[in-house]
Amino acid sequence: MSRYTHLADFDQLAGMLAVASRDLCPVIRRASAALLEVDAEAGRTVRAEVAVARELHDRIDGSVPAVLARRQPVASDLRLIVAGLRMNGDMRRMGALAGHIAGVALARYPEPALPAQVRPTFVAMADAAARLADKAALVLATRDRVDAIQAGLDDDVLDALQRSLFTKLTDDWPYGIPAAVDVAMLGRYYERFADHAVGVARQVAYLVLGSR
Amino acid sequence: MSRYTHLADFDQLAGMLAVASRDLCPVIRRASAALLEVDAEAGRTVRAEVAVARELHDRIDGSVPAVLARRQPVASDLRLIVAGLRMNGDMRRMGALAGHIAGVALARYPEPALPAQVRPTFVAMADAAARLADKAALVLATRDRVDAIQAGLDDDVLDALQRSLFTKLTDDWPYGIPAAVDVAMLGRYYERFADHAVGVARQVAYLVLGSR
């Protein structure tokens, strides 16, 4: 194999990771639309998109041994591959969680899964989760402005929103048990999604800043 | 570096993975004891154990680039390293989830987090989760009898238990909203724990069977 082929392998892996992270941005937004706008079409689209994303995550995982074997990478390339596997695991979960959010919306359709009282909290959660997915994709695609992006990288907003949600799930909650369970699970899905998005971005930041 | 040192690196990584998976078995059992026996001491011990486990998971992740760089492994060794990183990610989540189970028990202490009606379901969940953790540890330590172990490797039991749990969380549920939310989250934690345990064992089975 020529050096050129090796580079192509490597670039392809980096490219697949960038595509995988970028593809998750519309997926989480559409999952939130399915939930917030009670849009079954959006929910079904998310399910299809998540299945496509999963194939890409499988291809990424599957390509790594071959890239390692052919390229025998060292130093920064090697860290990228190790980080890439970790990121891919995070992205796999992000896709699954977006699918779960859409799934709850679809299970309740045509009723809204969200009682009016908690809708504003989920609007804020959806926004924060989508922004974190954007940041993960941006930092992975550009490996640039990592300091600036890293500064705004935290899922504290989601943690705080989830905590405020759980304070509403008391015996005064007027919407019944199934809605309370849905709301608790949805809060958890957004919180986990955000945590994995931050994981992706932090891996890139670590790579870029660590190699300066 | 001598060949001997390289082998030591590699064995050390495999050893750390085996220890990490074995250590999770008492942790999930103790987390279940905290929950089922309303045992705060067990709950606090789990928290400490999870913190120790996390350090080992960090050391495993941290050791991989050096092992790869020094050993330039090929074929089966390389697959083991890639699989090892994935397993380590699974085990990291297993530890966190055991910690969440203990956390719910501690948050409700001295009250039981589980209403009597769902206790039998959680006894079964705890048993199934602990057995899957055992299988993951056994298969990772021995890389033996993989076919036999693989045959019994599924988290369908947990999925079915979780579904039966959710059918109880209707408006007829007599224990109030906070208990319903706890029960839903606990069901989710066990289901996710089992899923990750199966992930670990499947990675090993794939490696062993794939290399025959």
Q: What's the helix and strand layout?
A:
Two copies of one chain form a homodimer.
Chain A: H1 3-36, H2 40-71, H3 75-108, H4 119-142, H5 146-151, H6 156-168, H7 177-210
Task: Describe the protein's architecture and organization.
2 copies of one chain form a homodimer. Chain A has 212 residues and is mainly alpha-helical. Chain A has helices at residues 3-36, 40-71, 75-108, 119-142, 146-151, 156-168, 177-210. Chain A has a single domain (3-210), classed as Up-down Bundle (Methane Monooxygenase Hydroxylase, Chain G, domain 1). The first copy, chain A, contains 7 helices and no strands. In chain A, α1 (3-36) packs antiparallel against α4 (119-142) and α4 runs parallel beside α7. Chain A is elongated. The two termini of chain A are 30 Å apart. Mean pLDDT of chain A is 87; it is low at 1-6. The interface between A and B is medium-sized, with 29 and 28 residues. Chains A, B: It comes from Micromonospora rosaria. Chains A, B: Residues 28-102, 124-204 form the PhoU domain.
CATH topology of chain A: Methane Monooxygenase Hydroxylase, Chain G, domain 1
| Mean pLDDT across all amino acids of chain A | 87
Number of domains of chain A: 1
Helix content of chain A: over 70%
CATH class division of chain A: Mainly Alpha
End-to-end Cα distance of chain A, whole Å, is 30 Å
Largest sheet descriptor of chain A: none
Overall structural class of chain A, as computed from helix and strand content, comes to mainly alpha
Shape of chain A: elongated
Show unreliable segments of chain A: 1-6
Q: Would you identify the CATH H-level superfamily of chain A?
A: Phosphate transport system protein phou homolog 2, domain 2
Order of helices and strands of chain A: HHHHHHH
Largest interface: A-B, 29 and 28 residues
State the total count of DSSP E strands of chain A.
Answer: 0
